[in-house]
Design a protein that fits this description.
Blueprint lengths: L1 H19 L19 E17 L2 E17 L2 E8 L16 E12 L2 E9 L4 H4 L12 H5 L3 E11 L2 E9 L10 E12 L16 E11 L4 E12 L2 E10 L6 E8 L4 E9 L7 E10 L7 E11 L7 E11 L1
Length: about 325
């Protein structure tokens, strides 16, 4: 598998480099490789800022959770996206010179046949909707615990497509041991069946959806670097201003944390939500979060204010406590 992946990466890289050096159009007929021409659309620049004030038993803090810049566009048949986070460049006054820009996405995608897309580069692991959607489009301040545990970006190659209402993803990426090498890989397979509509769009919650939507998903992930083997399950339902979402991750030989979220659009500007989570750990840790979103000016998740209250109960006294978060999300 590693030899096949290395050959794939080498061939793709060679094609991209050679194409950029040519002034005329490159077209490889009857091949899975993209047509790279001088014709382009973009790049389009954008991004978002997430700033939050949090107050818990350890004290209060105000910080930028994200200062994201994004560049997207097309060149020939290829769609590309590059993003980086600049929050690390803000001095945290800890006396250490550790501020830096962090790379997020750096990927190219193209259609290799009808209904099948190839992605090459650095991208998110395709496991759960709660981990895949943008942090600027969350229903609550935090992802679900499972979504937050499986939202990493790594370099690799991915194929995805659809057969009618059944969507699928298969990805091979560098392992999560932090070594940055491809000797140990993470393999992910995900399938989503859209019973009606699609409840796993770019937003989480009820905002931005029309009609009835019901989707169920199943994913399997194996990481050679860390030894992780896990199965993830999720469902989503959105209809008439209501949304329901649940996920569970069953780790081989480990815990099986679950979450359940419900939200309601009160009108075009306000959405309320409640989330219950069970860590399934030895300390019987559970979390309850209640939230309110104000989509200011009818611009939805592009400009919203968020207010969350989270209460944690556990047999471990160090884990217990409550927290209030107040934040602003602004996409530009």
């Amino acid at each position: 598998m590693n030899r096949f992946l290395n050959l794939t990466l080498a061939a793709s890289a060679t094609l991209l480099v050679s194409a950029s050096a040519q002034a005329n159009e490159l077209s490889i007929a009857n091949s899975p490789f993209p047509n790279l021409s001088l014709a382009s659309d973009g790049p389009n620049l954008g991004g978002y800022i997430l700033v939050h004030y949090g107050d818990d038993d350890d004290g209060a803090e105000m910080k930028f959770r994200s200062v994201r810049m994004e560049m997207k566009g097309t060149r020939g048949d290829v769609k590309y996206a590059i993003s980086a986070d600049f929050k690390g460049t803000l001095d945290d006054f800890d006396g250490a010179d550790d501020e830096a820009v962090s790379l997020k996405d750096a990927k190219a995608a193209w259609s290799i046949s009808d209904g099948i897309t190839a992605t090459f580069g650095r991208f998110k692991e395709p496991i759960l909707h709660s981990g895949l959607h943008s942090s600027s489009r969350r229903l609550l301040v935090e992802r679900t615990g499972n979504g937050g545990a499986f939202d990493d970006r790594n370099a690799g190659v991915m194929l995805n497509g659809a057969f009618g209402d059944l969507q699928w993803w298969v990805a091979m990426q560098e392992g999560d041991d932090g070594a940055g090498a491809m000797d140990d890989t993470q393999t992910t397979m995900r399938a989503v069946y859209n019973v009606m509509g699609s409840a796993f769009g770019k937003y989480q919650g009820a905002y931005g959806y029309e009609g009835g939507n019901l989707s169920v998903g199943l994913a399997n992930v194996e990481d050679d670097a860390t030894g992780l083997e896990a199965t993830a399950m999720e469902f989503g339902y959105v209809n008439s201003g209501w949304s329901l979402y649940g996920d569970m991750v069953d780790q081989d030989g480990g815990d099986s944390p679950t979450s359940f979220t419900v939200s309601r659009m009160m009108n075009s500007e306000y959405e309320i939500a409640v989330r219950m989570e069970d860590d399934d750990d030895a300390d019987n840790t559970t979390h309850m979060t209640a939230g309110l979103n104000w989509y200011q000016g009818g611009d939805g998740h592009n400009l919203k204010w968020q207010l969350n209250f989270t209460d944690t109960e556990s047999d471990d006294a160090a884990e217990e406590g409550s927290r209030v978060d107040f934040g602003l999300v602004w996409r530009f």
